[in-house]
Amino acid sequence: MKLKNDRLLKALLREPVDRTPVWIMRQAGRYLPEYLATRAEAGSFMQLCQTPELACEVTLQPLRRYDLDAAIIFSDILTIPDAMGLGLYFVTGEGPKFERPLSSRAEIEALPRPDISDSLRYVTDAVSLTRREIGGKVPLLGFSGSPWTLATYMIEGGSSKTFGKAKRLLYQDPNTAHVLLGKLAETVTDYLNAQIEAGAQGVQIFDTWGGALSFDAYREFSLSYMQQIVDGLKREHDGRKIPVILFSKGCNTQLEALADSGCDALGVDWTIALSEARRRVGDRVALQGNLDPSILLADPDVIRREVRRTLESFGPGEGHVFNLGHGITPDVDPDHLQALIAAVAEFSPALHRGN
Amino acid sequence: MKLKNDRLLKALLREPVDRTPVWIMRQAGRYLPEYLATRAEAGSFMQLCQTPELACEVTLQPLRRYDLDAAIIFSDILTIPDAMGLGLYFVTGEGPKFERPLSSRAEIEALPRPDISDSLRYVTDAVSLTRREIGGKVPLLGFSGSPWTLATYMIEGGSSKTFGKAKRLLYQDPNTAHVLLGKLAETVTDYLNAQIEAGAQGVQIFDTWGGALSFDAYREFSLSYMQQIVDGLKREHDGRKIPVILFSKGCNTQLEALADSGCDALGVDWTIALSEARRRVGDRVALQGNLDPSILLADPDVIRREVRRTLESFGPGEGHVFNLGHGITPDVDPDHLQALIAAVAEFSPALHRGN
């Protein structure tokens, strides 16, 4: 089925487009009443992730409301550790937890390399189904957590403020940390390639906790494994390039190194001006971002002004994908996201040659 | 009383020293059993802060154990909003809370400018007492939270992950935000000047949540108010310069602007290499930092290696104060901090002209 809107894929490859494409991290999420209804119907967050029809349904919901330029498959970043046997569960108000967090070298060595076509079949089934249901309207993105970000949850047993246990492993026993991160890099590669085979037309790696690491530790324990994944991904499928986006939150001191990783685009948070980020990465990669999600809590006229400011900070030319600098929060009024999307459509055409 | 060890004050002013001075953010804290004993004796954290003899005692405790080059007065960053009438209290495991968070322009306009010599007398009394008790062994630092960081707690009513309410105010009603931040900047100036009058020999402003702001919002709502404070501080007392340190966590994209603020030194977190931070600020300011606090969870040989690496990243020459990139955590073994301090003493003399 022909892709009717390839604005996102073009922008990620820095090809000319008529206007800046826009999608929103966590666009299928709790700020949407229809999402909450489907989640209630599913019974639990895990059931929602693990039932392809329901995951497909919530993936499509934001496309029915908004003129978005991409869908991203609804799933959780912790599906991989769950498939490795750690026992993912959710406690309301406390976030994700693992029944069996990692606490020894022996446990890390015993971790299996999951057979994606078996234990993560529910994700690739959701991808195939959603790709079919979208009917070529917009591209579908796949995603995974980065090895380091997955490792933090696997070692801490859940969310953490300071990542003390995970970092202690890196510093105290780097060899064991490398065993774990190497296994995760292999599995993430398998997982993203399986999503691409199933129909994902681009992929994003979420390195949510990259910014917790020191400058040197980030290179050794996070970036090098994302690089290994980028090297192992199928970069073409069905005759079309598959763009790869890396998003390391809080890692603006690493932009140059990230741009040299071989990925196509970098997600950028709001602590750097896009003009400065663009100057630093040059024409090596596209940039995705970077509106502060909290701006969606303000009124539509404020949102409009800040969207315009963000577009103008990137400036004229190709290689910008509009997004937030992190996921949309549950307290956002859905009409406010509408205002954001309308402002991108209004202000961005003037910035593009393809117009 | 003559100051016997002025290594810290010299290093903050980029004057020659025999070795790199070291102090540790939150050095009087929960990782020390003697601190826990005094806190238990006080009955509550607030009582500990508000009783000058006890605040003095815990300020001095780390100096008895370690060869530190400074003391920092024991207090809390939220004393100012408490003095403005918001009703600070602590819930174990949940951090600080306010009984009466700010929710309207009228409440912000009604906020008083506290008379420091009355409502914050317990802090200046603790400073005078501690200065006397230290007996010139090392200098005593005073501190305050930054206006933006104080404002987040005052609007959110406590800690926050995303600062949605506080940021909504900035974007939706910047005029009201400026009224609040302006009042806080005046009060912080009064407060730090009162600490200097009482005997503080240097001061640090903690902008713990500066990194939550976008690049532009940081300049408008955080940096400009810190600058206003720096401009209003007594920079000399009793014939000696009073160095001013700004610490904006997660704001490495702002280092150049921070260096132009008129302060003497910048605290730096561990997401940037000190070599790069030094290159960017040039000889405008000294740098303080930047070991990842989690390194103190590893064994002494690892700590030794990472201290050396941090010192060498700054490199030869003046203007480095060794510290962590954020506060020491309660789970640290006190002997591990000893290893850090010993390593600074061992490796740093070779880097200094004053040696």
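qc> Chain A touches chain B at residues 162-164, 167-168, 171-172, 211, 213-218, 250-253, 270-273, 276, 292-295, 297-299, 302, 306, 309, 325, 329, 331 (CB under 8 Å).
qc> done
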